[in-house]
Amino acid sequence: MDELRAQGVGNISRMHEEQFPDWFLGRKFPSKEAALLKPHPDTTEEQWKELCDLFTSEAFMKRSEQNKKNRSKLTVNHAAGSRSFQRTRACMKNQESGNINPAELYKRIIQTKMGFGPRKEREKFMTAVKPPPSSTLTTQSSDLQHQLAKARDEIEAMRAAREKDLQEFAKKQAEMEATLRDHREEQRVEQERIRLEQEEA
Q1: Would you give the DSSP letter of residue 115?
Q2: Could you give the count of Cα atoms lying within 13 Å of 81 in the half-sphere of its Cβ?
Q3: Is 33's pLDDT higher than 70?
Q4: Percentage, residues of the chain above pLDDT 90
Q5: How far is it, in rounded angstroms, from Cα 80 to Cα 77?
């Protein structure tokens, strides 16, 4: 392995533990010679020869068999990457719980934190917070409808006022354009008069 590291394979221990054995064992080469004919694309021929020697060594095969036995004893398949078992289990519990109200969520967090439950005052608070009864919901719904109708009326009034302002603006703009045209016409007539006076003189 030290020779492989010196030759610059990079993270050879990581690659040796994960990537290369999968390539070697996953292809189920019938012999070491067959494996040597199809090297891994990330290695040189010399490096692949060293790795094939390693994978066919008795110590590697013994360790591989022991690891297979140990993995078969696991009751939980850990496929969460770098996340710990406790974190994975907590996430699974959260998925199972589904949508819960804030009081229940608070209660669960406090009970699971540090392994003890909430104090009696907190428990009273949590049991006191409950969703409102359906009659309250109906009242709230009618209040919301009333507020919505009021908001619509206000929007309509604002829209009408804006329309009126736009019409007044358009009227003023038309008046200003007419005044501007008249002023230009007066200037043109004045210039024409001055030109005629100059020609006569």
Answers
A1: G
A2: 0
A3: yes
A4: 24
A5: 9
- 35 pLDDT band, cuts 50/70/90, is confident
The end-to-end CA distance of the chain, in Å, is 114
C-alpha distance from residue 147 to each of 67, 85, 151 (Å): 68, 50, 6
d(CA 36, CA 51): 10
Report the C-alpha gap between 127 and 52 in whole angstroms. Answer: 66
**Identity of residue 24:** F
- Over 90: is that where the pLDDT of 80 sits? no
Q: In the chain, pLDDT over 70 holds for what percent of residues? A: 55
**Amino acid (one-letter) located at 177:** E
Residue 38 one-letter amino acid: K
Work out the angle between the directed axes of helices 120-128 and 102-112 (0-180°, nearest 10).
160
The neighbour count for residue 24, using CB atoms within 10 Å, is: 20
Domain positions in the chain are: 2-73, 85-128, 140-201
Q: What 3-state DSSP class applies to 139?
A: helix
